[in-house]
Amino acid sequence: MSKQISRKTAAARREKRSKYVQAGSLICFFVLWQLIAFANIQNEWFNPNFLPSPLDVIQSAVEYAQAGTLLAHIGISLYRLLVGFVIGTVISVIIGSLMCLFRTVNNILSPIVNLFGPIPVMAFLPMFLIWFGIGESSKITLIAYTTVIAMLPYVTEGIRNTDPLLVRSSVSLGASNIQVFTHVLFRSALPNIFVGMKACLGLAFSSLVVAEMMGASTGLGFIIVDAKNWFRLDDMFMSAIIIGLLYTLFYGVLTLLERLLFPWKRSGMNAAVES
To answer: Which residues have C-beta within 8 Å of that of residue 218, sequence separation ≥ 6?
Structure first.
């Protein structure tokens, strides 16, 4: 018992030490960035406007906040991302389930997914703008499309890797087809679906920025393209850093939900490390 407690204590210390190292890494990065920008101003290696310092970026954020536009840009970007990502996740789960349950559906959709999967998202944006206009529909559709294409393999793999013994046992106990899917197949695939959501989150953010850089007058991606026209690199860095912080926040939320829903994954990893 005492040995098990000591292992948990050691694991907690390692996790705490890892957080300190991660925080220290970020602090060192920004300090080094500030020093390089300051040295560039003093020595004039190249145009200082091309490398704003972290303090310049913070000043840019303060100016946007004082003008009352920063939260508006962040809010509209979050709205587009959340709606598109949620719609894409739901559609990918539905399509992936149908592909796994019905061979005909799989034979019809697999070639189409394999055909469109490797095509960059940027190639579809002009088409979506023509089809859905320059409003919110084209941007949300692009994010949803990106999420569906990227998440389908995780959904289908999670369902197909379900232990056949669980399926046979549920059928033998009198479970209906719907009950087998909801209580066995879907629950078995949930961990893999969460892995897919975390893996596809970065792609959803990328498609958000791409969508907002064309046919938009608000959003974090719009700030980047607008700042490019006026050589405001401090605004560009500010928007890029906010996007990175939002991604980190969303990734952390998904990780927290994953730990709450599937604690056995974390405990299994800890046991493997300790052994």
So the answer is: 72, 73, 76, 212
